[in-house]
Amino acid sequence: ALSQRTNANMAPQRFLFLLACVGLLLPLMSAGKQYTNSWAVQVEGGDEIARELARKHGFDFRGKIGNLDGVYHFELLEGIGEHSPHKTTALKEEKKVRFVEQQHYKKMAKKDPR
Q: Which residues, in sequence order, are bridge partners of residue 27?
């Protein structure tokens, strides 16, 4: 009877321990990408529209990306290096946004020097 009560009392602790382990492991298992605090955003309507969208969603507007037509660099100063799908989704819902992607580091491997 004592062992049954002890096991019953341990169930919530075991659950919390399991939940904590899953919470710690999930970020490590997420596709192995290391994200930056930059987004590439294709906006219809020009620089002013892009600037307004950046400000509306809490980004710093960093200007046009190279010669790409209507593609801009938005930078987030908070949560640096964190995956932020909620920010990406919010931008995608804007009528003037054609494409949006949070940037991530590309893993480069040296060629075998044989």
A: none
Contact between residue 39 and residue 53 where contact means Cβ atoms under 8 Å apart: no
pTM across the whole model = 0.66
Whether residue 8 is predicted with pLDDT greater than 90 in this model: the reply is no
Nearest to 51 by CA among 110, 1, 96: 96
In angstroms, rounded to a whole number, what is the distance separating the alpha carbons of residues 91 and 43? 10
Residues 6+ apart with CB under 8 A from 35: 81, 82, 83, 84, 102, 103, 104, 105
Q: Are 98 and 46 in contact (CB under 8 A)?
A: no
The residue among 106, 107, 98 whose CA lies nearest residue 40 is 98
How far is C-alpha 31 from the chain's CA centre? 12
How would DSSP label each residue in 5-17? Answer: HHHHHHHHHHHHH
How does DSSP classify residue 106? Answer: P
| Torsion 7-9-12-14 (CA) sign | negative
